[in-house]
User: What shape does this take?
Amino acid sequence: SNPSILILPGDGIGPEVMAQVTRIIDWFGEKRDLKFDVETDLVGGAAYDKHGVPLSDETMARAMEVDAVLLGAVGGPKYDDLDFSVKPERGLLRLRKEMDLFSNLRPAQCFDALADFSSLKKDIVSGLDIMIVRELTSGVYFGEPRGIHKEGNERVGINTQRYTESEIARVARSAFELARKRGNKVCSMEKANVMESGILWRDVVTEIHETEYPDVELSHMYADNGAMQLVRAPKQFDVIVTDNLFGDVLSDCAAMLTGSLGMLPSASLGLPNADGRPKALYEPVHGSAPDITGQGKANPIACILSFAMALRYSFDQGDEATRLEKAVEKVLADGARTADLMGPEDGTPISTTQMGDVILEALDAS
Ligand code: NAI
Ligand code: MG
Assistant: This one.
């Protein structure tokens, strides 16, 4: 049978950008004989409107069964006053938690045509291609004890940075595996100088490296220096592996090296199933963009590149993933720009659908 994909377009611009991905999935079926069994369902506010919950049990069960989940975006002003337990974001959190998606892949890749968009000088980012692997299911966002307590006559807010050896080991393996398919280089970031969890992190990463991945080049860096280096000389890195908190900050920092939010894909991977495919969720980094929803302005590239990651990491179709990425690169080089990729004086932008059109044409010509 064909590999299966569950599409969850979600809210706001989610359905608009996902519509372009659906066209591209169809193209691969027709032109490359790469057929997928695709089903579409609700998540976030759209699921709340129909079911009263941001992710139904049935949808959750399907997400566990399919080979990959593609998600658009969730949330929007309509849902801002909902109770926390049914907020759209909870749908996404439930997917991440129950699928146990511990390895969050955030590429920061600079397309030459957009190098002027970077917050940095062109020669610092031109040709940049790095991957940040962020641990996503543990660390200070989840550790116990946590809470706000009264201590004497003032309150104290508490969170706990907590990592087990196995949690560190599995995300380290995921980074080393990735590095083998890329530049064969991993830089692990923590703060072993001031944190116990950092000392353990460095220990475990070193041990996994020595025993399982001695062929990959490993270095360690304190995360604060890592932030400096990302801005000073980002091309020194290939794969960066780091914990949940540092990864949150460092990946947003790396994102701005490359320009618009509308360009940034991500993958969240779990443990491999029996067939060797990891549980996987692919989604653009951006949100539901209520300010431009329904206007045909959304850039679909982040969502399209997320599907390219699915081709590579879930379906073992690295060459086809590259074909799609090259098509995106080509249309950008030819000057195709949605509104987020241009200044106010730069002429007329193309629409979401038109960006889909030119990418399909570039695929046809590939
Ligand atoms: P956002 O990412 O939705 O938008 C930030 C800015 O970037 C807006 O000006 C928007 O128009 C622009 N933008 C975002 N994606 C774009 C694209 N593809 N093309 C062109 N422009 C784009 O973040 P914001 O405004 O903070 O949040 C809006 C809603 O999205 C909130 O309800 C938030 O909770 C939710 N959200 C959902 C996420 C998810 O589903 N993973 C992630 C981040 C936010
Ligand atoms: Mg963040």
Q: What stands out?
A: The longest strand covers residues 143-151. The first helix runs from residue 14 to 31.
